[in-house]
Design a protein that fits this description.
The structure holds two protein chains of two kinds.
Chain A lengths: L3 E4 L2 E3 L6 E7 L8 E6 L6 E5 L3 E2 L7 E6 L2 E6 L9 E6 L6 E2 L3 E4 L1
Parallel strand pairs in A: 2-11
Antiparallel strand pairs in A: 1-3, 3-8, 4-5, 4-9, 5-6, 7-8, 9-10, 9-11
Chain B lengths: L2 E4 L3 E3 L5 E8 L8 E6 L5 E7 L6 E3 L7 E6 L4 E6 L8 E9 L2 E5 L3 E5 L2
Parallel strand pairs in B: 2-11
Antiparallel strand pairs in B: 1-3, 3-8, 4-5, 4-9, 5-6, 7-8, 9-10, 9-11
The chains are: A mainly beta, B mainly beta.
């Protein structure tokens, strides 16, 4: 089973600032099958990025993903109020699919 | 538009079973696998398994082997997740999610299952 770690656990930022979230894997993620999801309080997760760097439909270009192998990054270039949420990475290159513990982006 | 609509909240006693439904609409039901993911209160996401609506094939996370059953009904475009021998550790919100290119592009609204004596 691939273990994902995320850092930082919590980051406090202001609207307009840049957020850089990291996701590390215990072993190489096959085909860079790494996704990022956003979860706002009380809501289901929302797909942001798949295949490490491809934005999902309707996701604004201030969200970008990068990385390969065992190290991945989600960058939010200019935070907007709706972006304050928890972000999870997930690998789907091997079974079982696993999620990271999440990074909370706080104001 | 694609929608996954789940059944309502449940309260169960330890040792009981729970069955949660997920009705899909807005796309061809048999084109996409459905996964189940759960989230304990204040915690992260845990993948449980998937079902293939075409033939009913399933794959479950090892953690749930022996007490998790996923089924589907193509006539109502619904999938079901049944978890047995519940304990307080199973208290969580359970989500169904549609598989698209191996990621989860649409999610149900979630069903809170509370296990309490």
């Amino acid at each position: 089973e691939i273990i994902l770690t995320q850092s930082p656990a919590t980051v406090s930022l202001s609207p307009g600032e840049r957020a850089t979230l990291s996701c590390g894997a215990s072993q190489s993620v096959s085909s860079d099958y790494l996704a990022w999801y956003q979860q706002r309080p009380g809501l289901a997760p929302r797909l942001l990025i798949y295949d490490a760097s491809t934005r999902a439909t309707g996701i604004p270009d201030r969200f970008s993903g990068s990385g390969s192998g065992t190290d991945f990054t989600l960058t939010i270039s200019r935070l907007e109020p709706a972006d304050f949420a928890v972000y999870y990475c997930q690998q789907y290159g091997s079974s079982p699919r696993t999620f990271g513990p999440g990074t909370r982006v706080d104001i | 538009q694609v929608q996954l609509v789940q059944s309502g909240a449940e309260v169960k006693k330890p040792g009981a079973s729970v069955k949660v439904s997920c009705e899909a609409s807005g796309y061809t039901f048999t084109d996409n696998y459905i996964h189940w993911v759960r989230q304990a209160p204040g915690q992260g996401l845990e993948w449980m398994g998937w079902i293939n609506p075409t033939g009913g094939g399933t794959d479950y996370a090892q953690t749930f082997q022996g007490r998790l059953t996923m089924t589907r009904d193509t006539s109502t475009t619904s999938v079901y997740m049944e978890l047995s021998r519940l304990t307080s550790d199973d208290t969580a919100t359970y989500y169904c999610a549609r598989d698209w290119r191996h990621v989860f592009d649409y999610w149900g609204q979630g069903t809170l299952v509370t296990v309490s004596s």
